[in-house]
Design goal:
Elements: H1 14-20, E1 32-43, E2 46-57, E3 61-65, H2 72-79, E4 87-92, E5 95-96, H3 102-110, E6 112-115, H4 127-138, H5 143-156, H6 172-184, E7 190-194, H7 202-219, E8 222-226, H8 230-236, E9 239-244, E10 247-253, H9 254-258, H10 263-270
Parallel strand pairs: 3-8, 3-9, 6-7, 7-8
Antiparallel strand pairs: 1-2, 1-4, 4-5, 9-10
The structure holds adenosine-5'-triphosphate (ATP) and magnesium ion (MG).
Adenosine-5'-triphosphate is lined by residues 43, 48, 66, 68-74.
Protein name: ABC transporter ATP-binding protein
Domain ABC transporter: 34-270
GO molecular function: ATP binding; ATP hydrolysis activity
């Protein structure tokens, strides 16, 4: 696999890396459903994304890692069109999300699935109705067909026995699996996960990772995963991008990331308290 990641010798500061730019594409030549170009986003005087560049390869699982508050969730919200960048380009399926009208943006959104941190299920609907919701809202399918699709996905995530339970009655892991089934129900080409492993014990995290790998092998697509869990990143990712202070500072295949000699990347991936990354 080609290596086109900016390398750093210890003489260079992060400002130097920023100025030079990190190459945004871990595997040039493959197609991308999602491209992020020079995206900047501030909330008030707080600059969150500060010129983010990143391409997500199709048919691969790309993990975005980075410290808390560095803009990872904000990035996902840009991809799904929930946030508009102050400047820069968010391109999904070859379309600049903010040069098309709301209706077209909605159409694009239907081709993306997102699993929010807590599953984001509707508390007043049982698991079955939660998973059926996107089909009922966005398609004209009849209930019999919806049932087939919903039960198929619930079977894949091991929840066929929990269909009548409400989110408040099931465990955190089950909520995430239900959220996963719901994210996949419209057959999306892009699937995003915001910290799918948060709040899960190590065994359930591992099972969820297996499920992500299995579903990706089965359905394909551009998977974007945000996580703090280094083991998850190592296990499921084809590529790893590291974001710091709103910019991409490393991007390559998983092996490269874990062998990186950039002090920040090394510190972050080893969870070391000594290094350029502090509490600020
Ligand atoms: N709608 C908003 N209004 C104001 N500030 C926001 C908004 N959304 C995010 N922020 C701020 O942007 C920064 C980045 O937030 P974001 O949620 O993307 O971080 P993150 O990298 O996902 O962190 P974590 O790993 O802790 O989830 C945070 O300081 C957050 O408070
Ligand atoms: Mg977040």
């Amino acid at each position: 696999m080609s290596t086109n990641v900016a390398t750093i010798d210890d003489e260079r500061t992060y400002e130097d890396i920023y100025a030079q730019g990190v190459i945004v594409d871990p595997e040039p030549g493959v197609d991308h459903n999602v491209r992020i170009r020079e995206v900047k986003k501030s909330f008030g005087s707080f600059d969150v994304l500060t010129g983010l560049n990143l391409n997500f390869p199709d048919n691969a699982i790309t993990t975005v890692l980075g410290p808390s508050g560095t803009g990872k969730s904000v990035l996902l919200k840009h991809i799904v069109g929930l946030l508009e960048p102050d400047s820069g380009l968010v391109e999904v399926f070859g379309q600049d999300l903010w040069r098309i009208n709301d209706k077209d943006r909605q159409e694009i959104r239907k081709r993306m699935g997102i699993l929010f941190q807590d599953g984001a299920l509707f508390g007043s609907m049982n698991i079955y109705d939660n998973v059926a919701f996107p089909l009922r809202k966005h398609t004209h399918k009849r209930e019999a067909e919806i049932r087939k699709i919903v039960m198929g996905h619930l079977d894949e995530v091991g929840l066929t026995k929990a269909i009548s339970k409400f989110p408040g009655e099931v465990s955190g892991g089950m909520k995430k699996r239900a959220g996963f089934a719901r994210a996949l129900v419209l057959n999306p080409s892009v699937v995003m996960f915001d910290e799918p492993d948060s709040g899960l014990d190590p065994v359930r995290t591992s099972l969820l990772n297996d499920l992500i790998l299995r579903m990706h092998a089965e359905h394909g697509g551009t998977y974007v995963l945000v996580t703090h869990d280094i083991r998850t990143a190592r296990k499921v990712s084809d590529y790893v991008g590291v974001v710091w202070k709103g910019k991409l500072i490393h991007y390559g295949d998983t092996e490269e990331a874990f062998n990186s000699d950039m002090p920040f990347v090394r510190q972050f991936l080893s969870g070391d308290s000594v290094g350029p990354l502090g509490m600020d």
